# Entry
Amino acid sequence: MGRYTGHADAVVRPRTTDEVAAVVTLCAAEGVRICVQGGNTGLVGGSVPPSHPDGSRPTILLSTARMTDVDEIDIVGQSVGVQAGASVATIDTAAGRAGLMFGVDLASRESATAGGVVATNAGGVRMIRHGNTRSQVLGIEAVLADGRILRRWSPLVKDNVGYDIPGLLAGSEGTLAVITGVLLRLVRPATGAEVAVIALRAVDDATALIGAARDAGLTIEAAELMTDAGVTLVHEHGGRRPVATAAPFYLLLEVSGTGGVQDVLLGVLETADGVLDAVVEPGPGRALWEVRERHTESISRSTATPVVKLDVSVPIHALGDAVADLEALAGSRDHRCRPILFGHVGDGNIHVNLLDVPPDDADGLTEAVFAVIAGHGGSISAEHGIGRAKSAWTHLGRSAVDLATMRAIKDALDPQGLLNPGVLFG
Ligand SMILES: Cc1cc2nc3c(=O)[nH]c(=O)nc-3n(C[C@H](O)[C@H](O)[C@H](O)COP(=O)(O)OP(=O)(O)OC[C@H]3O[C@@H](n4cnc5c(N)ncnc54)[C@H](O)[C@@H]3O)c2cc1C
# Structure
């Protein structure tokens, strides 16, 4: 991102949970702060240590890069145990060999780790079908801030003994414990999937089209929105234009079903409003997916200043208005910059990328985007978490009592404040 830099007095790369526990025990005894890093693909600065070293409290970076074991797949139970540093791609490939798949997928799959996707409760492109990462977690192993190992590792689908600690650690961004292993639910891959990129007149046409596909009996596997500015940028960086007709918006739609999926999809496209052009390919349709997945890289390569990246969500009925307001904001006299918006449209999730922002306007622009999102009843963090980037704005998404409850949980589990200081709580 080119936005975050930090300072660590040492980097530690443990191989086993016992080694993590030994490191954390030592840090607890000496008051050393720990920044946990998985694949370092997070987009809110949570895996980067604080930038100013604090003389009295050294900081280590604890990397899970060597904790990459993947256990044998439990085909009957549809689950797998993995170490925290196993990448999403590795887990998915292992699951694939057993005829299953990991229900979380994202363009950072080669680097993003199990620990990272759990710690951020990542959403990704399959969220519309299989839910977020939290809902894939059956069990967890973690080292607490005092060095003790907590292991709740049961494949039981029904097991209601007390608090949902795996659920709590999902989305905790390294502030409550170091996740060392995860027992993950696996899902069955779709059959007969078709992938389409549809050129559309308006955002509301995309949401209507998703509804029409559902009504026609199709299962939505993914639904991603792109704008003409984004598709053009990807094209400038060597990507292909998916359809011949230029349009304000493009919907990448992946659908599945039982038999005749392509015919049903073509029928939906013929009768839907706002369709200017479309291309349909049998799944996995990697060439079509590439257009969407190359957005982040193309954006990073074509901005003069660090990108202001804001991952927000709004109620689906407000998406069209929110996108229009965000584009108007970026063109306004007060905040002139280049907006590239894309996102998981079926979840109401917009990735706001603002390029060429004068550095002294980054915070002002962030505030202005959050004001637009709040005005539409949305959230300042849809799936990337809070990290360091958004810690000043959590009050926009949670009440004072809610924030105090989170703080009480943090203080109970990490009374010395050693785990990922500066993340989530500022
Ligand atoms: C091209 C691209 C596409 C992306 N697409 C998506 C997307 O579709 N959906 C989405 O949600 N995100 C997306 N992301 C963001 C990112 O990939 C996710 O946030 C991912 O979950 C981070 O995983 P990581 O292993 O890289 O974690 P890191 O970046 O290393 O860390 C992220 C946070 O998790 C904490 N953490 C990491 N490992 C552990 C652990 N073992 N124990 C405790 N805390 C830990 C860190 O301290 C930090 O706070 C994308 C990023 C890129 C670059």
Notes: The two ends are 20 Å apart (CA to CA). The pocket of flavin-adenine dinucleotide is lined by residues 36-43, 46-47, 64, 84, 106-108, 111-113, 115-117, 119-120, 122-125, 173-174, 178-179, 296, 383-384, 387, 420, 423 (CB under 6 Å). The chain has a mean pLDDT of 95.
